[in-house]
Write a structure and sequence with these properties.
- By secondary structure, this protein is mainly alpha-helical.
- 24% of the residues are buried.
- The chain contains eight helices and no strands.
- The two termini are 25 Å apart.
- The longest helix has 39 residues.
- 81% of the residues lie in helices and 0% in strands.
- This is Peroxisomal biogenesis factor 11 gamma.
- It holds the Pfam family PEX11.
- It comes from Labrus bergylta (ballan wrasse).
Length: 239
C-alpha cells in the first residue's frame, strides 16, 4: 500500500504525470456521470450525482486547457530537437513524425486563442479556433496511428529477419516495442473517435456520442498513456 502511494506521489510531482492523472480522472468522471445520468432518469439524487460528476469533469478539462498555455516552448524544444528526423532509419517514419510535430505545434496557439476568446480576453469568436484546434488534434492522432503502423511493419520485418538468421537475443525487446506501438494505436484511435465527435454536425459521427461514450473513449486512451508512462519509467529504472 505504501509503495503504491509513493509511486502515485512520484507521478503527481511531475507535470506530465499530473496531467495524465487529471486526464484519467476527468474522463472517468464523465464516464461514470454519463452512465448514472442515463440510468437514473427517475431518481433525483442519482441525477444530481451524475450532473455533479459531469460538472467536475468539465472543470478538470478547463484546468488542463489552462495548463496547456505553458506547453508551447516545450513542444518547440522537442520539435527543434527532432528537426527533420535525421536519426530515423526509415524515411516514412521520419516525415510522418515531422508532420505530427508540425500539427502539434500549431495546435497550441489555436487552442490558446479559443480559450482567450471564451474568457473574453480578446474580441474574436472562439468557434472557428476550437474547430481548427480539433482538426489539428485529429490530424496529429491520425498521423500518429500511421506512424505506429509503419513502425509495427518495420519491427515485424526485423523480427522475421532475426528468426531466419537465428539471432533471437533481442526478440523480447522487439516484442515489447511492438506491444507499445499497438497500445499507441489503441489510445490514438480512442482519442480520434472523440475528435470526430467534436467536429461540426454532419461529419461522420460528429455530435452523436453520449457523455458516457466520450468518457469511455477518453478513459481508454488515458489508461493507455498511464501504462506507457509506467513502462518507460520501469525501463529507466532497470538501466
Amino acid at each position: 500500500m505504501q509503495q503504491s502511494v509513493e509511486a502515485l506521489v512520484r507521478v503527481l510531482e511531475t507535470y506530465r504525470g499530473r496531467d495524465k492523472i487529471i486526464r484519467t480522472v476527468c474522463y472517468g468522471s464523465q464516464l461514470v456521470g454519463g452512465v448514472i445520468s442515463r440510468k437514473a432518469e427517475s431518481d433525483i439524487s442519482s441525477q444530481r450525482l451524475g450532473k455533479s460528476l459531469l460538472l467536475f469533469s468539465a472543470q478538470l478539462s478547463q484546468c488542463r486547457t489552462v495548463l496547456r498555455l505553458f506547453d508551447d516552448l516545450s513542444m518547440l524544444a522537442y520539435s527543434h530537437g527532432y528537426g527533420f528526423g535525421g536519426t530515423e532509419e526509415d524515411s516514412g517514419v521520419r516525415w510522418i513524425s515531422v508532420l505530427t510535430n508540425l500539427a502539434d505545434q500549431l495546435y497550441y496557439p489555436c487552442e490558446h486563442i479559443a480559450w482567450a476568446a471564451d474568457a473574453e480576453l480578446i474580441e474574436v469568436k472562439s468557434d472557428k479556433w476550437w474547430l481548427l484546434s480539433t482538426v489539428l488534434w485529429g490530424t496529429s492522432l491520425l498521423l500518429g496511428i500511421l506512424r505506429s503502423l509503419r513502425v509495427l511493419l518495420l519491427l515485424k520485418k526485423k523480427l522475421k529477419r532475426q528468426e531466419r538468421d537465428g539471432g533471437g537475443s533481442s526478440h523480447s525487446r522487439l516484442h515489447r516495442q511492438m506491444r507499445g506501438e499497438l497500445l499507441s494505436v489503441l489510445g490514438s484511435m480512442a482519442d480520434l473517435s472523440n475528435a470526430v465527435h467534436w467536429m461540426p454536425p454532419g461529419f461522420l459521427w460528429a455530435g452523436r456520442f453520449p457523455n458516457w461514450l466520450v468518457g469511455l473513449m477518453g478513459t481508454v486512451s488515458s489508461l493507455v498513456g498511464l501504462i506507457q508512462m509506467s513502462g518507460s519509467s520501469d525501463q529507466t529504472d532497470s538501466t
